[in-house]
Amino acid sequence: MRAPARPRARILLPAALTAALLAGCSSHPDSQSHSPATATDSAGAVWKPKPGLAWQWQLDGEVEPTVDVPVYDIDGFENSKADVAALHRAGRKVICYVNVGAWENFRPDKDGFPRSVLGKNNGWAGERWLDIRRLSVLRPIMERRFDMCRDKGFDAVEPDLVEGYGNDTGFRLTAADQLRYNRMIADIAHERGLSVGLKNDLPQIPQLLADFDFAVDEECAQYDECTLLTPFIKAGKAVFHVEYKEPTSAFCAESRRLGLSSMQKKLELGVWRKPC
């Protein structure tokens, strides 16, 4: 049984930092493409999703392939090469969801993690934070996971929980530790020809923008943070965004103004979606 989807961990920004980040942000023209052709990139190149691409994010249940959007984000372990191929035949690009920040007791490679890298429970059943300072230990594990994504034919990776430094993990993680780990994760993806998205971690967008090809964000509208994502838009990189509690009437106008690819989802991340 799949662990439930999670709202993102919150990292509180100091007021001065928030102001500095906001000062460098600007708006983007309305853009929401629904054509599969717009999801493609030049042959042989790492996929570079552009702002405005509509998407489906389904991490629970059998993947429903008929949603008419150019991008799907699905679980890397629970979907097969055939599932990815079917989405490709329908003209979709496919993102591989992989948790890189926490150990999960329901994954087939769970025994490959030494106990020394397992921290506190992260609030979800069967999950424990990872000691991301242990790069030499975690790198081969994540390499094998990203090999799986590549071998199944995925175009990109969504690495989850890449902001442990802002949480009570059981380890004394720093922002510098997180930067090193996140850049390692991006390098692992690019070495395999996969594009990679920065999941949440808004405070480190200025430092990590060049390392990541797109962003995935949860609940920036609820916390009034969506403008912090505009560096990705200004760089021509998609921001795939969801809200769980906010109705579309509360955030879609601003999302369109900023150029975000936004929708409302239920927390379990099943088939249901309400796009902007």
Give a short summary of the structure.
Residues 1-19 form the signal peptide. With 276 residues, the chain is an alpha/beta fold.
CATH class: Alpha Beta
CATH architecture descriptor name:
Alpha-Beta Barrel
Kindly report how far apart the N and C termini lie: 31 Å
Low-confidence stretches: 1-42
- How many H/I helices? 7
Count of structural domains? 1
What form results from the Cα inertia axes?
globular
InterPro entries: Aldolase_TIM, GH, GH114_TIM-barrel
Signal peptide: 1-19
Protein name: Endo alpha-1,4 polygalactosaminidase
Keywords: Signal
Description of the molecule:
This protein is α/β, with parallel strands linked by helices. The protein has a single domain (48-275), classed as Aldolase class I (TIM Barrel, Alpha-Beta Barrel). 26% of the residues lie in helices and 19% in strands. It is built from seven helices and twelve strands. Strands 1-2-3-7-8-9-10-11-12 form a nine-stranded mixed sheet. Strand 2 (71-75), helix 2 (81-89) and strand 3 form a beta-alpha-beta unit. It is globular and about 45 Å long.
